[in-house]
Fold:
Amino acid sequence: MGIPESGLMIYQWVMIRSDLIRNRVWPGANREEIDGGILSFPRTSTVRFTLAGFVLTLGLSGCGVRDGVKLSDTATTVPDETAYALPGPGGPAIVNIVQRNFSNATQQDIFLFTSASTPGQNVLRVQLFGPVGSNFEGTKSLGYSSVRASEIAKEMRRELPGVALRQSPIYLQNNYGPFSYAFGRGSGSDACLYAWQQIRSPEDARTAFQNRGTIQVRLRLCEENASEEKLVSNMYGYTIRGAFNAAGWNPYGEPPSVDPTLGRTGNPIYPKTNDVRDNVMPAVEARRVRPVVQPRQVVVATEKIAPIKQPSAEETIPLPTTGDMSGIVVPSPDCVNQSAGAGQCK
Structure:
C-alpha cells in the first residue's frame, strides 16, 4: 500500500511551510491580526499531527483501488437451454447465445450453424420488451421502433452487406401472427434470407394493466444450395419459450373466440379433402395362412411274386392224340447235319 502522489505533494508542501514558520521566515509567522485581534498560529507539532492524519486517510483511500479488468454484466454468454426461442425441427443447430440486458428489455442473439461462404453469421435475434426488474435500473435502454420499411432496409444492409435482397410481396402468417422476409443470392451458390416479425397485442386490446409487452424477432440465414421455400420454412417452425413473469405482460393478446356457428343446427361442417385423405385408416394386409406341411412317409412298393403252383398227384398231363401227331414233322439226322444252303431234306 502506498501514499497517492497528490497526498505526498501536499505533505511535502506543508512540511516546508512549517519549517519556514519555525525559522521565522514566513511573513506573519508568530501572529496575525484579524479584526483588530491577535490570533496565534498553531504549534508546529499540531500541524504535523493533523497533516499525518490527513495523509494517512489519503493512503487508506488509495488502498481501496484494485487493479484489473471488471467484466460488464450487460452482455453475457448463456447456456443453450436458456434460449428465448428454438429453431424448428430439422433447422440449423444452436452454436452460441449472447444475452444483453437493458433497462427496458432483454435481448438474445442465438447464433446458428453456418455452412455458407457468405460473410456473416446466421442468427436468430429475439427482443423481449417488458419489466426487466430493478437489477438493471440505470443501464442503457434498448431503443424500440415499430416495423418500418426504412428501418428494415438498414437492418438488411447491416446484416447482409453487398447481397441484393428482394422483399416478398406475399402476405404470410405463422402461429404468432404476420411476418415478412426478403430473399437473395449470396456468394457462390448461397441462398440468403432476412425475415422479421413483431408480436404485439392489438391496440384496442392493450390497457394499462393487460396485454402489455412486445416481442421483436429477426432471422438472418444463409445456406448453400438452398431454395427459397426451405429458408422460409424456418419462420414457421421456430418456437418462442421466453416470457416475463409479470402480471399484465401478454404480447399475444386475448385468445380468439369460438366460432358462433359451432354446434348450431343448420350449419353443417364438411371435412376437407386433405383431412379425409390423412385420416384414412391404413389398410391391413390380410395374412394368408400357410398350410402346415405334414412330412410324408415314403412307402416303397414291393412286388409280390406269386408262387408257382405245382401240379398235384391227382392232376394228369394229357397225352397227344393221333391227330396232333400227324401235323408234326421230325427232321432226319441228315438234314440236321447239312448247312443252311443245302437242298431240301427228305
